[in-house]
Specification:
The protein is α+β, with helices and mostly antiparallel strands and about 100 residues long. It has two helices and five strands.
Length: about 100
């Protein structure tokens, strides 16, 4: 009996893209270094995302994590959101710079 090859969903992200983990209690930023599909044998009701893409994301320190598509967003999309959470330093205005260093 032939087994039917499942129709795999198209990955949302591409190799080399900069992404941020947006869910959970920690932030992880890095570059997608690999994409693969989860293969779980057994009952499909236990794994509704049975064939969803998984991404290996490597940060600047060389640490790699595996994430699902729903956990990630493109890094460029989140710059303003991360700055508002004080994860990224806010840019100083020209007024603040001029107050800090008086002209002589």
């Amino acid at each position: 009996m032939k087994t039917k090859t499942p129709q795999l969903p198209r990955p949302q992200f591409k190799l080399g893209q900069k992404v941020v983990k947006t869910t959970g209690d920690y932030t992880f930023m890095g570059i997608i270094t690999a994409i693969f599909y989860k293969q779980l044998k057994g009952k499909t009701e236990l794994a509704p995302d049975k064939h969803s893409p998984r991404y290996i994301v490597e940060n600047i320190d060389g640490v790699c994590h595996i994430f699902s598509q729903g956990q990630l967003s493109l890094q460029a999309d989140l710059t303003h959101a991360l700055a508002s959470l004080s994860i990224l330093p806010a840019k100083k205005s020209k007024c603040e710079d001029s107050k800090a260093s008086p002209k002589v």
